[in-house]
Amino acid sequence: MNILFLMADQIAPHFLPAYGHRVVKTPRLDELAARSVIFDAHYSNSPLCVPARAGLLTGHLPSEINVFDSGCDYEFSVPTFAHYLRANGHVTVQSGKAHYIGADQLHGLEKRLTTDICPADNCWYGNWDEPDLRLDWFHDLKNVVTAGIAERSSQQDYDDDAAHAAVRWLFDYARGPDRRPFLLKVSFTHPHDPYVTPPEYWNRYRHDAIDMPVVPFIPVEERDSHGTWLYHHYDRGEYEVTDEDIRRSRHGYYGSIALVDDLVGRVLDALKAARLDSSTVIVFTADHGDMLGERGQWYKMSFFEHSCRIPLMVSIPGETATHRVSVCTSLIDLMPTLVDMALDDGTDHLVEPVEGRSLVPLVAGDPSGWVDETCSEICFEGVKAPGMMIRRGARKYVHWEGGPCSLFDLASDPHERVNLINDPSSAEEVGSFEAAVQGRWPIEELTRRIMLKQRRNALVHKALMSGEVTPLDFQPFDDASRRYYRGHGNWHEAEARDFLRFDM
């Protein structure tokens, strides 16, 4: 089997029709959903780009491989699903956002088709030595009050490049001599803020039809400690956010989802035109979600559902019957899943234990034996010590080290309005959750590792930005001597090679 792995950036499942949204328009993702297994309780293991993607690739919780924030690299020798598939006969390729930090810009990929949209150096690191310091690169709410229409943006340029390169690679593969199965990962940056979108996508929605947040603004003094920190660092009250700003932000975000939908459609059309669709598993997911004004919060970096729950659809060629999976899963489960799907003997190839679990039984409709539990962690800026989330069934426990904790019942309270942490009837359950936190995360030792990594990053970044700067950014190379026709070789052979034709 080939694998086409499609990824969006900062998209919560709440805003997709496949998950019940009635305003957003995604006809191509709807088509995919109609022939997919859909996961309804799928989570990011750290609601921030770099650690979430590190967990996805390696099958490890990000903290296990020392990836705590968006300034962290991880060892090039930590196996990823790209390593496993490549070592066992697959060609591994990526187009679009990777967001690898450090010198290794491949992590098992045989080829990257595009550069990145984010920095590859370690500039975006946390600083728990000065936890109240306002980081100069940190979000503010300018993206909310300036939301709307943009004829063009660099982010739109980037995603167009990512789709174009993926489409061209699929056709090159189909007419080329390489018969190895492929893993092609196509990663878009939309609908990540800024909340702007071209007129074509803005005009797909009536502005007065844009729905507003279900949970309105919660005053700062009523938020948890992490929510208070976020307010003082990205909100700060410096912009007056009106209802119209909120509606325009959501309108722009919905337009960006429609843009992603079109780009996904271009890739899927190329897959079909190249006659590769009947032998290709298709996966669609994201790295984390977006609060998008819920509770008065924006962007990601929290354990509330809009921030840390993400979509997952898995389509198996030739299978039209679909079902939904209600048990808890997460990004780290995708590494062993892809290995299990792609290779004979599946996860027997793994050279070390990983926290992730293969989703293949759930895709096949067999949840027996699956432990209905998953977890996430916040080891980046916004806390002074680690934060952890565990979801078991419908119950969700959030541990803030040194601060008040939370317990929610998502079945009766999907919008997390009622904190049950002090409910006497929940005392035993809270004790069980807390024991699980202490058993899974050695908090004192983990805090020491995080702060050491932050101090190292601060020193290394200062040094690398001093004097002559050598960028770590990935530089894609396309050998022009091997593209189209050149003076060496036979013209007729080149012409025949470049055609992709099928008998009608």
Task: Give an account of the 3D structure.
With 504 residues, this protein is α/β, with parallel strands linked by helices. It contains 14 helices and 16 strands. The protein has helices spanning 27-34, 49-58, 81-87, 142-145, 154-174, 199-202, 225-235, 243-273, 305-308, 334-342, 360-363, 427-440, 443-464, 491-498, and strands spanning 2-9, 37-39, 42-43, 91-96, 111-112, 148-149, 182-191, 196-197, 280-286, 312-315, 324-325, 329-330, 373-378, 387-392, 395-400, 406-409.
Number of strands: 16
Total of helices:
14
| Unreliable residue runs | none
| Biggest sheet descriptor | 8 strands, mixed
Strand line-up in the sheet with most strands: 5-4-7-1-9-10-2-11
Distance between the termini: 25 Å
Q: Name the helicity range.
A: 25-40%
Q: Average the pLDDT over all residues and give the rounded result.
A: 94
Residues in β-strands, percent:
5-15%
Shape: globular
SSE order in H/E notation?
A: EHEEHHEEHEHEEHHHEHEEEHHEEEEHHH
Structural class: alpha/beta
Whole-angstrom Rg:
23 Å
